[in-house]
Amino acid sequence: MNDEISQRLERLEANSAHLEHQVEQLNQVIIEQAKTIEVLKKQAQRQSQTLESMELDRIQSTNAKPPHYQ
User: Phi-psi bin for 66: left (phi > 0), alpha (psi -120 to 50), beta?
Assistant: First the structure.
């Protein structure tokens, strides 16, 4: 009976160690993904600002001022 309990305990400890290792690996993946998401957010924000600026420039260039404003 003691031998059976000992074997079960060893299996539980091995499974626990395996799960801890997997959790640590997943945590590292999440950290890397968070960094990537931040970079992508910044890039998207810069692109949005650039497009907005380009659109404003286009609108201003196509809207001719009335003669009395020139």
Answer: beta
> Is the pLDDT confidence value at 67 over 90?
no
- Report field, pTM of the whole predicted structure over 0.85: no
Distance CA(63)–CA(1), nearest Å, equals 91
pLDDT score, position 69: 67
Q: For residue 12, what pLDDT is reported?
A: 97
> With helix as H, strand as E and coil as C, how does the chain read?
CHHHHHHHHHHHHHHHHHHHHHHHHHHHHHHHHHHHHHHHHHHHHHHHHHHHHHHHHHHHHHCCCCHHHC
